[in-house]
Amino acid sequence: MQAQHNIHATDAQKAHIARLLLQANLAYAESNTPTSLVQRLKSRQECRDYLNEVLAQEPGNAIALGMMGRVEMDDGALDKAHTLFTDSLSHDPAQPQQFTNLGYWAIKSERPALAEQYFIQALEMDRQSAAAFGGVAHAKCLQGQFDVAYLHYRKLLEMGLEWPSIYSGMLTCAEHLDVNRADTKLARDAILLLRHDGLPHQEIGRFVGAIIRQQYDLENPNAQVALDAASEDELLILALEKTLMPDPAVEELITLLRRAIIAEVAQTVELRDELQPLALALAVYADRTGYALTAEDDEERLASAINDSICAQLAMGEQQDGMIGSLIISAMYGALFHQKYAVQLGRWNLVDWPVAMQGMMAASYYNRASEEAIKQNFDEKSAELCLEKTDVPQAWPNWSKLAYRSETSLKTMMATELGMNTDQLPETIRIMVCGAQSGQRAMELAHYLKDVEVIAVDESLANVAKATRLSGEMGISNIVFWPWSIAQQFVADDHKVHWIEIGRLPSTNMTDVSLAALVSSATGNGAVVHMHTAVNEQTDGDKQIRRLITQHGLKPTRTALRQLRRMVLTNRQDPMWQSLVAETDFYGLGGCRDRWFSEQDSRQLKELMALVSNEVDWKLVKARDTDGHSLATKPVQQQIQAEALGSEVQSLMGQGLSVYFQRRR
Question: In what order do the strands lie in the sheet with 658-663?
Fold first, then answer.
């Protein structure tokens, strides 16, 4: 009888452990769902509690050891995680899950080649493991094998998996692919990515443009483009609606299609229903470029006549339906907000327009009106009052969505990635992003880091206004966007920040701004400064255009910017211009204006590097290369110090490193 009781007790214990493991698994799954960080941390702790109970009863439980390793890895304790994974395998070597876990551990440890080996071991045991197959894709991507990784991501999507990391990884790879021929599978992939609302479509403009270049055979000077066929091309319309394609041949295609539409309207005096989706997409695209697209004189005259007609229609009390075609054509050539009838359009709200028109109306009119209202709050607005409406600077870069990240805590990142002691930091860490431009990076910091408040600073009032509007629309409340004048006053009032990130450097026009002085005043003991050692916008073409601007006394008007762009595009085979034509900035007037009339001041970076080279006050805690791989900090620190002392060592300026310095005192 006694022996039977012991067997029964053992069975009961096993059943209890199985229930605990099931609850731990459910809690762990909950900790990795896109809920709030607080809820995820709570679920992670629940998982830890269940696993501790299992391990108290059965210290060698392989499943519990492995799952505890995942919890530790999520908390950033990579050494503990590795020990737990290997302990689990020592108790049960036939676990594909633990090799998968070790693969993700290796990825977090910045060892993608080792990660790939672990994932392959897992797949040898379980050919159906999607997590291991996805891990191979991530590892290949991190090793720069973008074509192989891309095919892995495609296979995962074909298997019906909808993980955000798959779409994000595929998008990352897509922009690195060389598209040399028309490929229906690639076109289908591009449509899938563009349809997915949660992706930063601005990052695949080059990929989509290359597909369209091949589809329409744009390298063939005799290629014929049928307007009706283009109006039914889903990829083309999605691309125009959602991204910017930095390709001169694609830009020519777009201007030809626009010209064909207005030519037909001039003959028939109407915009056919079949052409409306393409015309609307062209209008949105033209706005995204800041109306950089070249238009011939006859097109400009027709657009002007259409605007006069709209004025007359509004004066006669015309209803919306009678003006829709005219408004679409007008918006292909200029912002409706800049037209003389703009005030009268304000009698309607955005939702009063047909649904198909609302994207175009928002871009061309309502968003600009909102941003103009935001500008009125800043003294810098007075500088725009003497400008023609079409010459008012446009926000740049013109992005649409934030890149995908998992929510986390900056304190956790500072502890795990920078090896810092964060005990003295407050609950909410204040970040200042200098040179935030139109705010994508700053908003990503505010959105995905749940223990921060962000002050984003930029010299362009258009950037401040656009980013303020977008952050409001996205519901990101822990961020403000300021011009430099307010940021400088904030620091002068003795406010401190815990993290400063340097984006685009102040231009040579900002003579009253010193990044080094601001960093020195705004930071205290333990604060971090993150900067890059490269200064962009320095192609031979940029330098030549700046010489022309100085020589001819050019002003940053729309007309001058368009003329400079046309000169470059006409001579784009000349080696002088080839690097410039490859830059995304070149395809928007806002980008051209920044590059040529607001050149970054490299002296600001030199002064800042000299400041942080003082090893008594500053410590280099991390350095990454252009591929994102960590470098040994000591040689980089020595190079920075030698450079500051005037040594003839190779300069860090221009090397494209990402460096993090911590203030010692």
Answer: 479-482, 452-457, 429-434, 497-502, 523-532, 658-663, 618-624
**Residue 82's CB: how many other CB atoms inside 10 A?**
18
* Record: fold of 1-142: 1.25.40
Place of tokens 């950033």: 76
pLDDT > 90 in the chain, percent: 82
Residues of the chain with CATH 1.25.40.10: 1-142
For residues 29 and 62, the answer to whether their CB atoms sit within 8 Å is: no
**665: exposed, middle or buried (C-beta count within 10 Å: 0-12, 13-18, 19+)?**
exposed
Task: Please give the average per-residue pLDDT across 236-243, as a whole number.
Answer: 98
Instruction: Evaluate if residue 649 carries a pLDDT over 80.
Output: no
- Say what the alpha-carbon torsion angle 590, 595, 601, 606 is, to the nearest 10 degrees: 110
* 91 in Cβ contact with 60 (< 8 Å): yes
Residues paired with residue 662 on neighbouring β-strands, in sequence order:
528, 619
Q: What tens digit of pLDDT does each residue of 305-364 get?
A: 999 999 999 999 888 888 999 999 999 999 999 999 999 999 999 999 999 999 999 999
Residue range(s) of every CATH 3.40.50.150 domain in the chain: 410-537+601-663
Identify any residues that bridge with 523 across adjacent strands, giving them in sequence order: 497
Domain 410-537+601-663, CATH class in plain words = alpha beta
CB atoms closer than 10 angstroms to residue 454: 28
Q: What is the pLDDT of residues 106-141, one digit of tens each?
A: 999 989 999 999 999 999 999 999 999 999 999 999
